[in-house]
Please model this.
Amino acid sequence: MSRFDFDWVDAFSDCAFGGNGCAVVHGGAHLPEAVCTAYVRETSLVECTFTGPSDIADIRVRYFLASREIPFAGHPTIATVAAMRDRGLISGNDLVLETGAGLVAVSLDGNMIEMTQVAPEFGPLADPALVAAAVSLPAKAIVGQPQKVSTGLPFCITVLKDQAALEAAALNVDALAVLGQSLGADGIDMMEPFLVTLQGATAQGDTYSRLLMAPPSPPEDPFTGSATGAMAAYLWRNGLMEKDTFIAEQGHGLGRPGQARVTRVGLAEAMTGVQVAGKGFILMRGTVDLPDAL
Model:
């Protein structure tokens, strides 16, 4: 049994109970997956991070769902850097994180934390009928053709015609499994459609999104930074977003409003990365005793 410092951070928010929560366990990157996933389940959060030393970057960050380790996640990256800054563990305004998806550059500008996600990878197009079934909507609610896109973690990016459709979406786990198989997913992990409308939840926003999640994760993710990067790449590539920088919103329907600033790196037809920036609010600080194995 070992004791670790931890911080509970609401990412993509500048106030308590906004955005998406993440617990950051400092110095716990050596712990086995079973311990880390059990900790995520104990918190009832979507994801938690565990940090440690790195030979190739400023710090190593491991990302965990309740079910497994994943290579990268957006809101936990914002949370991790916010927690490190609050503890005085960051010197200067630039650092590099070692993640399972590669090296991720992060810059600090006042209260904003900006991560540069890796160049987008555009995977197979999805059958709109399969996507519609997975989120309990008619196929006519979908604009264009959904596609598997990753800027570190893959999502099925799906544009909906209006916010009424966005609000009506409900996850069908059996249909989601069929969609995941068609896109080459291992089971149903992380292939939930990322639903987006081209209108903000507020006057400040340019897009508004939802991510409905399968068990054992909570039913809906309040803010999804990795999917926001993939979504932005999809919009730019398909000519659906004219701005080089725009405001993405998510979580308002859950009473946890979150906001990110998203910026394209490179030309729309040849992106070299996507920058996603947001704030982080430290909600809780403390220690946690975790076993070395389960």
Observations:
- The chain is about 20% helix and 40% strand.
